[in-house]
TrEMBL record:
Listed Pfam families: DUF5931 (PF19354), HATPase_c (PF02518)
SUPFAM superfamilies reported for this sequence: ATPase domain of HSP90 chaperone/DNA topoisomerase II/histidine kinase (SSF55874)
GO biological process: one example: phosphorelay signal transduction system
Stretches assigned to the Histidine kinase/HSP90-like ATPase domain: 288-381
MF terms in GO: protein histidine kinase activity
Domain DUF5931: 12-185
Membrane spanning stretches: 15-36, 48-67, 74-94, 100-120, 127-145, 157-177
UniProt-listed PANTHER family: NITRATE/NITRITE SENSOR PROTEIN NARX-RELATED (PTHR24421), OXYGEN SENSOR HISTIDINE KINASE NREB (PTHR24421:SF61)
Superkingdom of origin: Bacteria
Protein name: Sensor histidine kinase LiaS
Keywords from the UniProt entry: Kinase, Membrane, Transferase, Transmembrane, Transmembrane helix, Two-component regulatory system
EC numbers on record: 2.7.13.3
Species whose genome carries this gene: Actinomadura rubteroloni
Length: 392
């Protein structure tokens, strides 16, 4: 028998046992009313009062004993069934043979079903059906003790069927409820673990990654052995960013984590800074933004040199996502972009500005000769990707 220890107040197990206790008291009240009503027809009326006294005492004792999770076990279940069976068989002593043969209610009536419910709650369907079988056998034995011709009463047959149904259904429902509670507990644990992972990722992002990025930049500026140290720091920074991205929870279906896409551009020369938590966007929108950033980084490598450093910053605002691509190269001379567009070179106009414009976003380019270039891409969170026409 598999049991679940839920002694904590308010747990599923405690609620089930409270329901069984409530049933005991309600069934006791009904049995008492029936004993009072049928007193004049009993062969031994005093025996009816004695059985009622036993039922009252055991109801109070069972309520207290089953409420303590440490006491629930085979011994208490056996005692509960023994008391129920004894009160049932006592009907043969108190009731007349004619009354039993006519199908008059037993002394405990439906009070004995509390034992079946207890077995079902503790052990599931099999134990519930087993408890119902014991009481069914007790009903048959009752007719034998009373000298009746046999258990042919319709009321007795209906009672046996109800006992089996109660044991089967309650045991099944209890099993399903326990499985649901276990799944809920696992979901709560997973959520707590996810929150802790996100907290650690934020801490790493705000401390370790920034230190590695600073070491990489300073090493490149100092040169010599410091450049080698900076290169190693850059490699570790890229690996750590990839690890954080892999540990992050998967975005919902149909979406993509823009932070994870941009993190793939990280290298010894490209520093990517993104929120520690996912930045989910529609998959098509995220891919277009990633393509625009890739085009910007390609321009940095082409015009500033393959070893030129670049910085990518992703900001997740409530209404929009903002991506900045910055370099410290020679900058762009005034009018150069317009001249390139007139000459048919549409790299920035199409690959960056055109993509973002199709998403309903904006692109701002800040640059001056000798001061580097910064491209700021801003796309609203509700953006939808449009089909792009690709020219020759």
């Amino acid at each position: 028998m598999t049991t679940t220890d839920a002694r904590a107040p308010g747990g599923l197990e405690s609620a089930l046992w409270r329901a069984v206790a409530v049933y005991r008291w309600l069934a006791l009240a009904y049995a008492a009313a029936m004993i009072v009503r049928n007193q004049g027809e009993y062969a031994r009326p005093a025996g009816g009062w004695a059985v009622l006294a036993v039922m009252v005492v055991w109801t109070a004792a069972a309520t207290a004993l089953f409420a303590d999770g440490r006491r629930r076990g085979p011994a208490l279940l056996a005692a509960d069934m023994a008391v129920a069976l004894g009160c049932l068989l006592a009907t043969a002593y108190v009731e007349t043979s004619a009354g039993i043969a006519a199908g008059r209610p037993t002394l405990p009536v439906s009070w004995v079903a509390a034992a079946v419910l207890a077995w079902a709650v503790q052990g599931g369907r099999r134990w519930g059906v087993a408890g119902a079988g014991i009481l069914a056998a007790g009903n048959a034995l009752l007719h034998v003790l009373a000298g009746s011709e046999g258990p042919h009463g319709t009321a007795m047959f209906n009672g046996i069927v109800l006992l089996f149904l109660a044991g089967l259904v309650v045991g099944h429902v209890v099993r399903l409820a326990r499985e649901a509670e276990a799944r809920l507990a696992r979901a709560v644990e997973l959520e707590a673990a996810t929150r802790e992972r996100e907290r650690l990722a934020r801490g790493i992002h705000d401390s370790v990654l920034q230190v590695l990025a600073m070491v990489r930049r300073r090493g490149a500026e100092l040169g010599g052995e410091a450049a080698g140290l900076g290169r190693l720091a850059g490699e570790q920074e890229a690996a750590l960013r990839a690890l954080i991205g892999a540990a992050a929870p998967a975005p919902p279906a149909g979406t993509a984590d823009l932070g994870a896409l941009l993190a793939a551009h990280g290298s010894t020369t490209v520093s990517v800074a993104a929120p520690a938590t996912p930045v989910p966007l529609p998959a098509a929108v995220a891919r277009e933004i990633d393509a625009a950033v890739a085009a910007a980084l390609d321009n940095v490598a082409r015009h500033c040199g393959p070893s030129a450093p670049a910085w990518v910053l992703l900001e997740d605002d409530p209404d929009a996502v903002v991506v900045s691509v910055r370099d410290d190269g020679p900058g762009i001379e005034p009018g150069r972009l317009d001249a390139a567009q007139e000459a048919g070179r549409l790299g920035v106009a199409q690959s960056i500005v055109g993509r973002v414009r199709d998403l309903g976003g904006t692109v701002e380019i800040a640059s001056a000769p000798g001061a580097g270039t910064e491209i700021e891409i801003s796309v609203p969170r509700h953006a939808r990707a449009r089909a792009r026409k690709v020219g020759p």
